[in-house]
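Page header: ASSEMBLY MODEL / two components / 229 residues total.
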Amino acid sequence: GQNIDQPTEMTATEGAIVQINCTYQTSGFNGLFWYQQHAGEAPTFLSYNVLDGLEEKGRFSSFLSRSKGYSYLLLKELQMKDSASYLCAVRALYGQNFVFGPGTRLSVLP
Amino acid sequence: GAVVSQHPSWVICKSGTSVKIECRSLDFQATTMFWYRQFPKQSLMLMATSNEGSKATYEQGVEKDKFLINHASLTLSTLTVTSAHPEDSSFYICSARDRRDRVWTDTQYFGPGTRLTVL
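Prediction written out in full:
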């Protein structure tokens, strides 16, 4: 089966650093994706990991450990506009659909 | 690049009517498009996978006759909600894969979504 787990909600302060965790158990693995979704809008692509390690993109970094079935998204220098839901998605096989986690709603407070 | 559009962005209809939602890849050809449904404060639930020129593959629990999917070209897929009822009210999002993407960069590009309200 496919199971992806994320914390439901998180709160952080503007300027701080926050780490959103994602654990997964899937029948196969061919990549893990992070998306940001503001309320009422479509998800936008943030990052992609297929090999173990850290991928950095500006204020956002994503880490993957395939042996542990674990990933995290790290957001630095938080801004108010970062308040959104963050979705972790796993692709079991290349070319196949993604399985999305429940999403983590992040609230950034002043 | 990699822009996906959806039309309409929102629609209100009466119970029992049918609604068609279009998903277009504007600057790339999409071999595969996906249709998702998202209820408030919930994650995306895949409804079906649409491949150009072939029948869509529906996820378990999704009625094929109620949610008709047509993928007539490499840039257009349509979802028709037939005989819509209030419980079909939701946010419908499509995504597309770029046929040029290589294995390591393959991702899905999402449309802006269509909010359907059935009265």
